[in-house]
């Protein structure tokens, strides 16, 4: 006999195998919905992408030696550094790196949707120019 209550706690899109990029993206979208309404207008144009790993150029620019050490990346100009003169540029982007997230999930034992949420909120915090302490407070609010 199966325990149906166990399946209700699995992340959306999880089929028993390693979640694919679409499943991780669905978890990220669900996490965005949990953010306080005051933040939503400011992130609506931030592009969320899922990649397997960061490329060598990205890792080198961050002085990161191993691709498993980077779970997410914000690319853009934080809101705190913008002025009226900044327009017409590329949209800000948050990339979540699927394989490193899955490895951290396996090693850490927390729920995958919570881990995706944590990485996403941390990277969105950079969009707002938040410190690490600010990001922890935001995560507690969401």
TrEMBL record:
Annotated protein name in UniProt: Metallopeptidase family protein
Lineage summary: Bacteria, Pseudomonadati, Pseudomonadota, Alphaproteobacteria, Sphingomonadales
InterPro entries: Zincin_1, Zincin_1_sf
Gene3D superfamilies assigned to the protein according to its UniProt record, in alphabetical order: 3.30.2010.20
């Amino acid at each position: 006999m199966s325990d149906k209550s166990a399946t209700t706690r699995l992340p959306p899109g999880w089929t028993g195998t390693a979640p694919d990029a679409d499943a991780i993206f669905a978890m990220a979208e669900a996490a965005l919905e949990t953010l306080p309404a005051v933040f939503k207008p400011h992130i609506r144009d931030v592009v969320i992408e899922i990649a397997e790993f960061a490329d060598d150029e990205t890792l080198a620019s961050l002085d990161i030696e191993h691709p498993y050490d980077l779970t997410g990346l914000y690319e853009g100009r934080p809101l705190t550094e913008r002025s009226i003169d900044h327009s017409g540029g590329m949209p800000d982007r948050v990339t979540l790196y699927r394989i490193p997230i899955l490895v951290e999930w396996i090693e850490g034992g927390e729920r995958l949707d919570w881990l995706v949420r944590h990485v996403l909120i941390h990277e969105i915090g950079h969009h707002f120019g938040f410190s690490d302490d600010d990001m922890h407070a935001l995560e507690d609010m969401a």
